[in-house]
Recover the amino acids of this structure.
């Protein structure tokens, strides 16, 4: 009887495994078609759910391990909108995990990011995403921290204009904005190589409030930020506009008003309040020209 049960279960396993082809033998596969592999196991008692806020380091790669994006993101997790989405990957992890996922590139860019598929992918291509889950914060904890941080805010729209004016006057800044909401101060000259959409740029930056307090720094993380210019979900609008007027090797300081930064809602982490002007010191380290460029 036991042998018969074992045989039946074995037959079922063979039938199930035969329903799909495992294209990536080093990875396991979910029923929704996500290929995954865990490199580091964290605290299995702390698993995120939809509604939690997480901090993750992300690396996007082609299947031949060519990296075209690296960065840290703070975000609120949501229920997956479709099978095989990146949201499903996040929900598979625990705090402290490091894992690799292979998903459909077209779905990721067009459905999740709401942008065009990069030219170096075809609609049938897969993308490899490495995820380091650094922190999980419950919605209630996040809401309380944000409420405490913003408790002194009254009218930030008017307040921002007043603070920005005082900052510019105190610093004796006489340069007018190069774009509406963007002040530009060149520190070091670049080599003349400019950037355009599709180019991969590598930058170091420090994000500060007008009072000098830091809210983000690649220097402190000891990791430069690499991304494809022009793709959504990469950087705030003001920082992208800033990088577009720089050249490779240049270092510059930008004062960015809220409409080009985190707007009327503030950052998703609650660190940057609504209607807040910010400062970015940017070092454009490297420009990798788009492969389709003539």
């Amino acid at each position: 009887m036991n042998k018969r049960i074992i045989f039946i279960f074995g037959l079922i396993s063979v039938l199930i495994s035969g329903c799909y082809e495992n294209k990536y033998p080093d990875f396991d596969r979910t029923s929704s078609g996500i290929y995954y592999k865990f490199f580091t196991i964290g605290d299995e008692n702390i698993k995120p759910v939809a509604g939690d806020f997480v901090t993750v380091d992300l690396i996007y790669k082609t299947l031949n391990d060519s990296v075209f994006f690296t960065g840290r993101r703070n975000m609120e997790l949501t229920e997956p909108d479709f099978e095989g989405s990146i949201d499903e990957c996040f929900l598979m992890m625990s705090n402290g995990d490091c894992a690799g996922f292979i998903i459909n590139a077209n779905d990721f860019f067009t459905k999740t990011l709401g942008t065009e598929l990069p030219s170096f992918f075809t609609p049938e291509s897969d993308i490899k995403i490495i995820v380091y889950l650094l922190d999980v914060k419950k919605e209630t904890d996040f809401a309380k921290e944000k409420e405490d941080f913003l408790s002194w805010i009254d009218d930030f729209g008017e307040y921002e204009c007043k603070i920005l004016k005082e900052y510019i006057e105190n610093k004796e800044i006489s340069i007018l904005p190069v774009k509406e909401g963007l002040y530009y101060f060149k520190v070091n000259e670049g080599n003349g190589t400019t950037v355009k959409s599709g180019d991969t740029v590598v930058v170091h930056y420090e994000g500060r409030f007008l009072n000098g307090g830091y809210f983000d720094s690649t220097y402190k993380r000891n990791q430069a930020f690499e991304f494809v210019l022009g793709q959504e979900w990469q950087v705030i609008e003001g920082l992208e506009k800033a990088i577009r007027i720089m050249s490779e090797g240049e270092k510059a300081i930008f004062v960015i008003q809220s409409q080009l930064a985190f707007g009327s809602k503030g950052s998703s982490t609650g660190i940057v309040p609504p209607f807040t002007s910010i400062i970015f010191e940017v070092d454009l380290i490297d420009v990798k020209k788009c492969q389709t460029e003539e």
About this structure: Residues 92 and 268 are 22 Å apart (CA to CA). Residues 2-17 form the longest helix (16 residues). Residues 9-18, 149-156 have pLDDT under 50 and may be disordered. The chain has seven helices and twelve strands.
